[in-house]
Amino acid sequence: MFFIHETTCISPQQTFLQDKIFGMSMDELNQPADNILYAIEPAYESIPPGILRRMGRAVRLGIGAALPVIKQTTKTVDGIIIGTSMGGMEDCIKFLNQIIEYNEGTLTPTNFVQSTPNAIAGQLGLLGKNKGYNITHVHRGFSFENAVIDVNMLLSEKPGSTYLMGAVDEISAYNYNIERLAGGYKIKSCSNSELYNIDSAGSIAGEGSAMFIVNDDKENAIAKLTAVHIFQTEDGQLVNEQLEQFLKTHLGNEKPDLLLSGENGDNRVIHFYNSCEQICGDAVTIARFKHLSGEHPTASAFAFWIGTEIIKRNALPGYMIKRSVEKDFKKVLIYNNYKGAQHSFMLMEKA
């Protein structure tokens, strides 16, 4: 489909422009606070201070991750494609509260301007003076995957183009409370190491931003996205059938070397992941990532980033491993589902 050339990630772990995450132990990882994994924000040296001061948190996360990869690439970026589900929600709530507080009088425009999900892609276009294709996909658990599909369609229409692709999501106090009351997050506090061992409903909340420079040029690429498939169902048997067909179509009789599982500690959806592990077979290494990123609608973007890094290094941090098989990581399958209904498969390969 396309090749990945540059990557950055701002996450709850030490992932921004460094490789510490690959040399750390479980005890050294950033731990959740009240079941929330907050992103570790960098100094944002690429953003002018005057502009940074007025940015909302989601906009900071997105632009802070995107500007370094734009500067690193030698290609001209022809478009910006971002996926988000809750980006700008905090500023949206602030603006709505101001409407009540000031009785619809004189309102601060900053919160309104940054309350829309497309504020991140728009700001990137303005800062980079990029007048090309600019779009934001807001599709809950499919937001990042729709950005991936959009890039693939664009490259089929305009071969030779280069795009900035990524995803951003933030934790809003209001949304967190709503999700917690709805049963989305665990009631009792748990650490990274305990997440998969506590047999209860819910997960831990997360946030972050991952950005990628992609095109159809294999030269100097880190990894390749071979295929992506999304579908919505709560039927476990249908998920199994979809995975079997996906693997048969893109790998034939082979299996992936690594399954990056979106298992999140929620006992209501664990059966989806267990079934997928069985379909992949015993000769496949299984790794999990949501004790690093937390659960959020675009957590698959973090998986996409760390999958790219695993292929690049041919190495896997020990604290991610659920089952280990001695082999090189040339083909990586990412399986994620959001709320047990929105399912996605992404197959990555060594370029």
Topology:
Layout (H helix, E strand, L loop, with lengths): L1 E9 L38 H4 L4 H16 L6 E5 L5 H13 L7 H5 L5 H9 L5 E5 L5 H15 L4 E8 L3 H9 L26 E8 L7 E10 L3 H16 L6 E4 L8 H11 L4 E4 L1 H4 L5 H15 L7 E3 L7 E8 L3 E9 L1
Parallel strand pairs: 2-3, 2-4, 7-8, 7-10
Antiparallel strand pairs: 1-5, 1-6, 4-5, 6-11, 8-9, 10-11
Approximately how much helix is present in the residues? 25-40%
Which descriptor suits the 3D outline?
Answer: globular
CATH topology of the largest domain: Peroxisomal Thiolase, Chain A, domain 1
Amino-to-carboxy terminus distance: 11 Å
Write up what this structure looks like.
This protein is α/β, with parallel strands linked by helices. Helix content is 33%, strand content 21%. The chain contains 11 helices and 11 strands. It has helices at residues 49-52, 57-72, 89-101, 109-113, 119-127, 143-157, 173-181, 236-251, 270-280, 290-293, 299-313, and strands at residues 2-10, 79-83, 133-137, 162-169, 208-215, 223-232, 258-261, 285-288, 321-323, 331-338, 342-350. The chain has an 11-stranded mixed β-sheet with strand order 3-2-4-5-1-6-11-10-7-8-9, with helices on both faces. Helix 2 crosses helix 5 (119-127) and helix 8 (236-251) packs parallel to helix 9 (270-280). The chain is globular and about 65 Å long. The N and C termini lie close together (11 Å).
